[in-house]
Structures are given as structure tokens and as C-alpha cells.
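Page 37, continued from 36.
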């Protein structure tokens, strides 16, 4: 199976292009992306492992898409 999704979801320049402008109060970028894609790359894992609380928040954000998958970028110590 091929999954398609963006590399990350926290981009300021996506406002008004990908995300609504202005973004409503409490807007969840990841939840929004999960409505249109079934995968996303976690960019922050390149710099270190995500905290369990952060991972739980991400999982809660995509709970509405049962097919959603995360792909984690490999930690930089392995790639450089």
C-alpha cells in the first residue's frame, strides 16, 4: 500500500494556503491534515525522540482517521 502525506504539519506559510486564514482559536493543524491525508512524517524525531505526552497528543489529533499512520524521520546521529 502506498500512503501519501506531507513531511510535517507545522508550517507558518501554510496559513491561507493549506490551513484557513485566520486559523480559528484552538486550531489543530495535525487534525486538519489527517482529514485529507492518511500519513504524515514526523520531522522532530530527527532531533530527538518525541516525548510520550507529545505522542499521545498526536494520536488523539488523528483519532478521527483510523487509517492514519505516522512515519518518523530517523535520528540525525544515524544519518549524518
Amino acid at each position: 500500500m502506498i500512503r501519501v502525506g506531507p513531511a510535517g504539519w507545522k508550517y507558518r506559510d501554510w496559513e491561507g494556503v493549506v490551513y484557513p486564514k485566520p486559523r480559528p482559536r484552538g486550531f489543530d493543524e495535525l487534525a486538519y491534515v489527517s482529514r485529507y491525508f492518511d500519513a504524515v512524517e514526523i520531522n522532530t524525531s530527527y532531533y530527538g525522540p518525541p516525548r510520550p505526552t507529545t505522542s499521545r497528543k498526536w494520536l488523539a489529533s488523528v483519532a478521527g482517521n483510523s487509517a492514519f499512520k505516522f512515519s518518523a524521520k530517523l535520528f540525525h546521529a544515524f544519518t549524518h
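Residues 12-79 form one domain. Flag for discussion at group meeting. The mean pLDDT is 95.
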